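Severity: low
Component: inverse-folding endpoint
Summary: output formatting inconsistent between runs
Steps to reproduce: submit the following structure tokens with default settings.
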């Protein structure tokens, strides 16, 4: 499948109560620098919203503890089919390339699919940007300095409903 225009994806509102709850949680540890606190915020919002959207297809719990967000972006969620989707948040999405930390391909919570979520913290909306499978990621260029793979966005599938269909077929 080929990438389709992500602008067609709807912007999902982030409830103000969720925004305030997550903002409070992400700033509790005052020893963290503001950039790490911001990444904690993005990861938590992406997990909460992604989990809600995918909940019918998921096992009952996330498979990576929150504290890992200080080291690596993303959350691994396990489908009932035992496949894992890694949700990777960002506040800006480069329309040409995406980056996937090597952790999600070689660590203990290896992903089968990778889903990008764009979050606008000021306007309080989220957009499911697109997803890609592990095989395509492994065929992408690897940046050893950043320990990440660079994926061309034209390889993403923008219709997120396809991810649910793939999971149902795999069961």
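Observed output (run 2 of 3):
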């Amino acid at each position: 499948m080929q990438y389709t225009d992500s602008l067609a994806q709807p912007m999902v509102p982030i409830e103000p109560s969720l925004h305030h709850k997550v903002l409070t949680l992400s700033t509790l540890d005052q020893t963290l620098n503001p950039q790490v606190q911001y990444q904690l915020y993005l990861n938590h919002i992406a997990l909460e919203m992604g989990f809600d959207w995918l909940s019918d297809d998921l096992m009952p719990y996330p498979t990576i503890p929150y504290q890992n967000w200080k080291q690596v972006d993303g959350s691994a969620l396990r489908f009932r089919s035992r496949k894992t989707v890694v949700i990777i948040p960002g506040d800006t999405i480069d329309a040409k390339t995406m980056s996937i930390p090597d952790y999600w391909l070689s660590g203990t919570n290896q992903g089968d699919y990778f889903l990008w979520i764009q979050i606008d913290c000021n306007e309080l909306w989220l957009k499911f940007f697109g997803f890609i499978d592990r095989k395509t990621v492994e065929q992408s260029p690897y940046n050893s300095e950043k320990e990440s793979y660079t994926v061309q966005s034209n390889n993403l599938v923008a219709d997120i409903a396809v991810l649910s269909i793939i999971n149902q077929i795999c069961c």
